[in-house]
Amino acid sequence: MTISKVALVTGGNRGMGLETSRQLAALGYRVLLGSRDLQAGEQAAASIGSDNVEAVKLDVISQSDIDALARHVDDRYGRLDVLVNNAGIMIDGDDGHSASICDADIDRVEQTLRVNTLGPIMIINAMLPLMQRAEDVRIINISSGMGQLFDMGGNYPGYRISKTALNAMTRIYAAELDPGKFHVNTLCPGWVRTDMGGSNADLSLEEGVDTTIWLATADEARVSGGYFRKRERIDW
Ligand SMILES: NC(=O)c1ccc[n+]([C@@H]2O[C@H](COP(=O)([O-])OP(=O)(O)OC[C@H]3O[C@@H](n4cnc5c(N)ncnc54)[C@H](OP(=O)(O)O)[C@@H]3O)[C@@H](O)[C@H]2O)c1
């Protein structure tokens, strides 16, 4: 029996993670929709209305959640083909805190780095043995233009640094892993209408996940170590 390709999407309970899960399921992938609140994940999975989606508990900074999920994927599917590191936070300027680096709340910077950068590293490393058993692995790290060094602006230090570091770790994995099997890339989705992006953002959810779905599925996207927006490479 051939099982469908297996995809894990972190932060799948809302925003672009939910839309990515929806589209991968529609393409026939078996989707593990990660959510730190399992009930929220189950509601989101139900909203997709596809037998291809399974909600799984995953707080991306919880090693015990990550290890339990790796065991579950091993028991149930024996491999992982696609990993979308989508979960993210932008908390530098919340709750009356300034977004300036000049009086940065270091606890918030640290928390942002944990969720946006260190969590993805913990997840990739835990899933590597399962991904080694797949033939064509796609790892997609959802970054942001706010992590681009070439035109780095001010404010949001935790968020900006976390996304620049996510880009760096993408290159490090691409350098270390077999490029014949592992396709590790990072992308900026653009400014997208989600809770994070707000209602004035340019792009719909469908537009926001287009490059993610392309990198996850397209034959011509069997590349590694790239930084993309609108399916095109962009400057680091
Ligand atoms: N929207 C934009 O314009 C934009 C632009 C550039 C880049 N991005 C990036 O795109 C990605 C998705 O953003 P979005 O706009 O869809 O954001 P969103 O609507 O705010 O959703 C964020 C998701 O991340 C999850 N999350 C946060 N902390 C988590 C943790 N510790 N463990 C597991 N899940 C966690 C949230 O879960 P809860 O519901 O439990 O909080 C939620 O599912 C993020 O990486 C973001 O930085 C967004």
Task: Give a short overview.
The chain has seven helices and eight strands. The protein is an alpha/beta fold. The longest helix has 27 residues.
Task: Describe, in plain words, how this protein is organized in 3D.
With 236 residues, the protein is an alpha/beta fold. The protein has one domain: NAD(P)-binding Rossmann-like Domain (Rossmann fold, 3-Layer(aba) Sandwich), CATH 3.40.50. The protein contains 7 helices and 8 strands, in the order E-H-E-H-E-H-E-H-E-H-E-H-H-E-E. It has an 8-stranded mixed beta sheet with strand order 3-2-1-4-5-6-7-8, with helices on both faces. Helix 3 runs parallel beside helix 4 (106-132) and helix 4 (106-132) runs parallel beside helix 5 (157-176). The longest helix has 27 residues, at 106-132. The radius of gyration is 17 Å and the shape is globular. The structure holds NADP nicotinamide-adenine-dinucleotide phosphate (NAP). NADP nicotinamide-adenine-dinucleotide phosphate is lined by residues 10-11, 13-17, 36-37, 40, 58-61, 86-89, 115, 142, 144, 188-189, 191-192, 194-197, 201.
Number of domains: 1
The helix/strand series, from N terminus to C terminus, equals EHEHEHEHEHEHHEE
Specify the CATH class. Answer: Alpha Beta
Q: Can you tell me the CATH topology?
A: Rossmann fold
